[in-house]
Design brief:
By secondary structure, this protein is an alpha+beta fold. The chain is built from five helices and 13 strands. A hairpin with a 4-residue loop joins strand 4 and strand 5. Helix 2 crosses helix 3.
């Protein structure tokens, strides 16, 4: 009988082999670091590389740019954040959209011209363009990082522009939402009472101005029975300041004017619904 055969001795890895392994590990670590830095800092190449929370500052900045672009030629108001779920990033992946509105009021015949002025005043990087048609006047712009600006004339003297993220991965917005204070509630109540209505809710919206400061809207919602007093007769005295010229909009259902330090817009529907907004501009 023969005894067990001894296994051949293991050959220790060569210095060259160990060096190749170390290089491979270092290269993998470097690629991981570069990928992390790229995701954190580089502009996205597709929309879903940024969540709605990461896109939110870009949306806010665009709202401020639009508020400045509207200028002293209009009365404006801004909305808060509207997050909507149920969109599809891919057939297997759902997402959310984030949108904010900027509403500008001007004379009934001047709304298409206002669109042109806004497009001209936006930063060149937005590549804003306006299309005028027999039935529609629209504006389109690119605020960067796949944040779009879309909208146009929605009624005589009314322009609504929506800043939106498109469908993206959901995430917290990463900002503390402004809450109405006591003074905001007093302003809202005074507007609704002056209009012959009752206050149902108050909301506050803010956005940073390009050169510093904040554009801020206090929105009051409520209702009234009957037609109430003419809108222009009751709004101006409420805040104790004269209008800066005649109202830009003055109809039975809509009124908008600029005061010394703020601007006010009211929509009064036939069903008795009231929406009044006081905005402090940039």
């Amino acid at each position: 009988m023969t005894g067990p055969v001894a296994a051949p001795p293991r050959t220790p890895p060569s210095r060259r082999g160990r060096w190749l392994v170390a290089v491979a590990v270092a290269w993998a670590v470097l690629l991981g670091v570069l990928a992390y830095v790229s995701v954190r800092n580089d502009p996205p190449t597709v929309r879903d590389q940024r969540t709605i929370g990461e896109a939110r500052p870009r949306v806010d900045r665009a709202v401020g740019e639009l508020a400045v672009a509207a200028g002293s030629d209009a009365v404006l108001s801004i909305s808060g954040y509207e997050v909507t779920g149920g969109c599809r990033i891919t057939p297997m992946r759902s997402g959310e959209t984030l949108e904010r509105d900027v509403t500008a009021y001007t004379s009934q015949t001047d709304a298409p011209v206002l669109l042109d002025r806004i497009a001209d005043r936006l930063p060149r990087s937005y590549q804003a363009g306006v299309r005028h048609g027999q039935e529609h006047d629209t504006l389109r712009a690119d605020a960067g990082e796949f944040v779009s600006v879309r909208g146009g004339v929605t009624a005589p003297g009314v322009v609504i522009l929506t800043v939106g993220t498109g469908c993206r991965p959901p995430a917290p917005l990463g900002v503390e939402l402004p809450a109405p204070g006591d003074e905001d509630r007093r302003i809202a109540d005074r507007m609704l009472v002056a209009l012959g209505g009752t206050l149902d809710g108050v909301a506050v919206a803010e956005a940073p101005c390009p050169s510093g400061g904040t554009v801020r809207t206090v929105a009051a919602s409520g209702s009234r029975s009957g037609s109430g007093k003419p809108l222009g007769d009751v709004l101006v005295p409420v805040f104790g300041s004269a209008q800066a010229g005649p109202p830009l909009v003055d109809t039975v259902e809509r009124y908008a004017y600029r005061g010394d330090e703020a601007m006010v817009a009211v929509d009064a529907d036939k069903d008795g619904t009231l929406d009044a907004r006081l905005t402090t501009p940039c």
